[in-house]
Structure to design on (479 residues):
């Protein structure tokens, strides 16, 4: 783990800078500074309502920061520079920068009116402009990879939760993002299906080059896969290697949070 | 033919007009439903207000008065439409207003997660609307559209009052000349039912198909 950590440094692929997010009169995120490096696996843990989902959604423009900036691969997400002047980003700019990020939701959000294959082909054809033949090939390969090559013509409602979530992962991966956000992708699943989805995530992680932001309550999984673990509660409370956080947390709040999982 | 069926041929001539009117008005209403329904969801404020005003106006005033306006008042302003044109126009506009609500509420009933999934896949807003939301919303619209179609069919009887020779008009004429009131309007009633009931069955059949598909 330690040597991997050194290998991935360099220019961050994602940079949150002084990010704050307010919903109504509730400040959900405060002063978030976070650099994520290419290929790095970052696990984000924290109590319910601590702003983990919000942090992930900011990166795919599902939420807009109240203040602060987000950079993806050296480029500002919410601003574009025109003749050295920073202007609010337009839809075209957002789409270009956002194209490097993929996100998998807790609730899958598959398209119910499309077959599994169509779900995975949709964006390659209509966003990347890939030919149907090429898209079908890549979608099929990706579905094979998540173990669903035999379900191409099924519809989402015909699959189990674990299978649906694996389709959602394939649908995101087929777009070849540089960074993937996984927002508690096993939390909506029956316990017996958690394993099959985590196995897919571990496989993606093992390939090495994908940058992953893993929001999770699965502490054993985070410990196994992550290069770095961040404990947050509206702000970043503590971060470090899995060992630092899980074995030897410095902050009493981290310790209190983790003790709930140790008992379980 | 034996009475009361001797008056049937005359009534059936009216059925043809009723069907023609229903079909043409339904097509117009269908198009208006989407144009106005999408208008109401537009980000463009004037468009939104215009679409909302349209819906409220046509839902908030009587269909019969609207018909009279187009057929009797517009000619005074030198706009002359035939009875059939007036009937199609007003029924189309009127049921289009109801249809726009159907379109809007069905589109809004689709979970926000669907839109978000589209955004995360970097789809354009228009692609999300047409490829993700609309196909799902359309399934929700079909039964209500079907019921509106039945309402439209029945509402066409009003056009007899602007001299259009539909089923109701023929019935009234026969009643006037023969004074066989019970037979005539009894048959008229049955014919309307025979036209509407297959539609009802059709809507139910589609509804079942959809729920089976979704389950
Ligand atoms: N669109 C919104 N409008 C208003 N409040 C919101 C919105 N989205 C999130 N919140 C609030 O922001 C806070 C943080 O939410 P968030 O979903 O980011 O937490 P989380 O850490 O992901 O929690 P969980 O572990 O339960 O998923 C919560 O109090 C939530 O109610
Ligand atoms: Mg969350």
């Amino acid at each position: 783990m330690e040597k991997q950590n050194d290998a991935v440094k360099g220019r961050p692929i994602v940079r949150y800078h002084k990010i704050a997010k307010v919903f109504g009169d509730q400040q959900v995120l405060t002063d978030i500074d976070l650099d994520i490096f290419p290929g790095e696996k970052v696990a984000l843990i924290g109590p319910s309502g601590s702003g983990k989902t919000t942090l992930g959604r900011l990166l795919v423009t599902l939420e807009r920061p109240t203040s602060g900036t987000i950079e993806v691969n050296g480029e500002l997400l919410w601003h574009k520079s025109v003749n050295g002047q920073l202007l609010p980003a337009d839809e075209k700019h957002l789409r270009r920068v956002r194209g490097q990020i993929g996100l998998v939701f807790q609730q899958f959000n598959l398209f119910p009116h499309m077959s599994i294959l169509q779900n995975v082909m949709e964006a390659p054809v209509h966003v990347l402009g890939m030919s149907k033949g090429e898209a079908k090939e890549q979608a099929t390969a990706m579905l094979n990879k998540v173990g669903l090559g035999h379900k191409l013509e099924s519809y989402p409602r015909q699959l189990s939760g674990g299978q649906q979530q694996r389709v959602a992962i394939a649908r995101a991966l087929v777009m070849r993002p540089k960074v993937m956000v996984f927002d508690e992708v096993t939390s909506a699943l029956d316990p017996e299906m958690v394993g099959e989805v985590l196995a897919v995530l571990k496989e993606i992680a093992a390939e090495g080059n994908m940058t992953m932001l893993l929001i999770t309550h699965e502490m054993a999984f985070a410990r196994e896969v992550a290069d770095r673990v961040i404990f947050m509660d509206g702000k970043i409370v503590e971060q470090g290697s899995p060992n630092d956080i899980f074995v030897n947390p410095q902050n009493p709040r981290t310790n209190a949070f983790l003790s709930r999982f140790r008992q379980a | 033919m034996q009475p009361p069926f001797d008056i049937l041929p005359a009534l059936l001539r009216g059925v043809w007009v009723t069907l023609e009117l229903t079909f043409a008005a339904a097509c117009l209403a269908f198009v208006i439903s989407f144009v106005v329904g999408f208008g109401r969801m537009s980000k463009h404020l004037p468009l939104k207000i215009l679409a909302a005003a349209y819906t409220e106006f046509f839902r908030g005033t009587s269909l019969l008065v609207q018909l009279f306006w187009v057929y009797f008042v517009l000619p005074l302003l030198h706009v002359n439409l035939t009875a059939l044109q007036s009937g199609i126009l007003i029924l189309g506009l009127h049921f289009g207003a109801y249809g726009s609500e159907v379109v809007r509420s069905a589109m809004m009933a689709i979970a926000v997660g669907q839109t978000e999934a589209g955004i995360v896949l970097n789809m354009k807003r228009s692609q999300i609307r047409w490829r993700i939301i609309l196909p799902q919303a359309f399934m929700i619209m079909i039964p209500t559209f079907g019921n509106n179609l039945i309402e439209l069919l029945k509402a066409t009887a009003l056009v007899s009052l602007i001299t259009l020779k539909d089923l109701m008009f023929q019935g009234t004429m026969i009643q006037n000349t023969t004074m066989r009131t019970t037979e005539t309007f009894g048959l008229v009633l049955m014919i309307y039912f025979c036209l509407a009931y297959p539609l009802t069955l059709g809507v139910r059949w589609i509804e079942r198909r959809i729920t089976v598909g979704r389950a």
